């Protein structure tokens, strides 16, 4: 039985090349950081990720993503002056499509990517869940179908970053271990950008 054809993705934006370029740059920034549906961000986050985006552009792009059903507006944090949004399941599918390069690319659009995208996605997952362990992080962030070695490397890297952030005070080690026996970390200090971390752990304990 032939699988039904998937509906084509709607255009993110129409209009001038400049407007298209800005919108795709913002969407690429979300794509690099979103570990799963439910990922939350604010218009202030968008402006931090793509520095040349104005407040009005961030609001316009967010409104378009709401219109497409890619995000939904959620309650803002206390004293936060910008709107907050959560990525929907449809939005996460759009993000995966964007990462695969199937969205129309605007000429001249340069992807803004940090040297280590894993740290960005790990921090985004930490912000979204508030409590996290290395095994859960790795199983969420590693592509489905990856081999055991890739999962083991991701688990080790996540453990080292979490331990590093704990030493810096951004997360704190929970007294309770996760069901898999790993250390759990609780978010203590929120930040738009992932804290600088290290992949060289000086802790030999099971993190």
Describe this structure as you would to a colleague.
The structure is a single chain. With 207 residues, this protein is an alpha+beta fold. The chain folds into 2 domains: 17-99, Arc Repressor Mutant, subunit A; 117-187, Arc Repressor Mutant, subunit A. Helix content is 44%, strand content 12%. It contains 7 helices and 6 strands; from the N terminus they run αβααββααβααββ. It has helices at 17-33, 43-49, 55-68, 89-99, 117-129, 134-141, 148-168, and strands at residues 40-42, 71-74, 84-87, 131-132, 171-177, 183-187. A 3-stranded antiparallel beta sheet has the order 1-3-2. A 3-stranded antiparallel beta sheet has the order 4-6-5. α2 (43-49) packs across α3.
Question: Can you describe this structure in just a few lines?
Answer:
By secondary structure, the protein is of the alpha+beta class.
CATH topology of the largest domain: Arc Repressor Mutant, subunit A
Termini separation: 46 Å
CATH class type of the largest domain: Mainly Alpha
Major sheet characteristics: 3 strands, antiparallel
Strand content: 5-15%
Query: SSE order in H/E notation?
Result: HEHHEEHHEHHEE
According to CATH, the homologous superfamily of the largest domain is Winged helix-like DNA-binding domain superfamily/Winged helix DNA-binding domain
The strand line-up of the biggest sheet is: 1-3-2
Q: What is the approximate shape?
A: globular
Helicity, in percent? 40-55%
Q: Which architecture of the largest domain does the CATH hierarchy give at level 2? A: Orthogonal Bundle
* Helix and strand composition category: alpha+beta
List segments where confidence is low: pLDDT < 50 over at least 5 consecutive residues: 3-9, 102-115, 200-205
- Mean of pLDDT: 76
The number of helical elements comes to: 7
